[in-house]
Amino acid sequence: MKLVVTICLVMLVIAGALGVARIVRRSTLGDRAVAFDMLTSVLTCALLVSAGYLQDGLLLDLAIVLGLLGFIASVTIARFIEARNGTQS
Amino acid sequence: MNDVMTAIRDVVSAVLMLSGSLLAVISSIGIHRLGSTRARMHATTKPATLGVLLCGVGAVVQFADVSDIAKVLVVVILQLVGAPIGAHMLGRAVGGK
């Protein structure tokens, strides 16, 4: 089980690193918002895997907060892009 | 008997967690290789729901406590409701190009 969790976490770290590289690289705001959305879901996955391995309920509280934060962040960025483009609806 | 149950639980949980993590890696590769913003959203939004669902079910298999299972349920439902709404708003904001 330890080996499996290690493999999972390594894969999630690789995914997170690629997402951060996408955000840091020169790209548009929409691309960054998409990458940030992916980053929060990767972090939620990592927290769930760690919580399952450690049998720790505290990490699940963090996962709840992170899911809510990612949702609010992507909605806010979307509203901001809409307002900046002058296509409010 | 107990050892067999633990082994079955570990195998089920390992398969679910590994497939969830693999989906995350695939989405992060797609975010670099696909051409337009909407194509990238196509690569990221499906693992956002399915990957978290798989990892959550894989964690639930390990838990013995009901309150922990309820918390995972909250996480998964939040993701299942929130991710499509956020992706829809982003897709509308990015524009139909």
CATH top level of chain A is Mainly Alpha
What's the helix count of chain B? 3
Helix content of chain A: over 70%
Q: Point out poorly predicted stretches of chain A.
A: none
Q: Supply the number of structural domains of chain A.
A: 1
Low-confidence stretches of chain B: none
User: What's the quaternary structure here?
Assistant: heterodimer
Q: Give the domain tally of chain B.
A: 1
- Overall strand count of chain A: 0
Helices and strands of chain A: which structural class? mainly alpha
What profile does the largest beta sheet of chain B have?
none
Classification by helices and strands of chain B: mainly alpha
| Shape designation of chain B | elongated
N-to-C series of helices and strands of chain A: HHH
Per-chain topology:
The complex is a heterodimer of chains A (89) and B (97).
Chain A lengths: L1 H23 L4 H26 L3 H28 L4
Helix pairs in contact in A: 1-2, 2-3
Chain B lengths: L1 H32 L3 H26 L3 H29 L3
Helix pairs in contact in B: 1-2, 2-3
Task: Describe this protein with a few key phrases.
heterodimer, A: 89 residues, mainly alpha, Helix Hairpins, flat, B: 97 residues, 3 helices, 0% strand
Summarize the structure.
With 89 residues, chain A is mainly α. In chain A, 87% of the residues lie in helices and 0% in strands. The relative contact order of chain B is 0.13.
Question: In words, what does this structure look like?
Answer:
The complex is a heterodimer of chains A (89) and B (97). With 89 residues, chain A is an all-alpha fold. Chain A has helices at 2-24, 29-54, 58-85. Chain A has a single domain (2-85), classed as Helix Hairpins (Orthogonal Bundle). In chain A, helix 1 (2-24) runs antiparallel to helix 2 and helix 2 (29-54) packs antiparallel against helix 3. Chain A is flat. Chain B has 97 residues and is mainly alpha-helical. Chain B has helices at 2-33, 37-62, 66-94. The radius of gyration of chain B is 17 Å and the shape is elongated. The chains are: A mainly alpha (89), B mainly alpha (97). At the A-B interface, helix 1, helix 2 and helix 3 of A face helix 1, helix 2 and helix 3 of B.
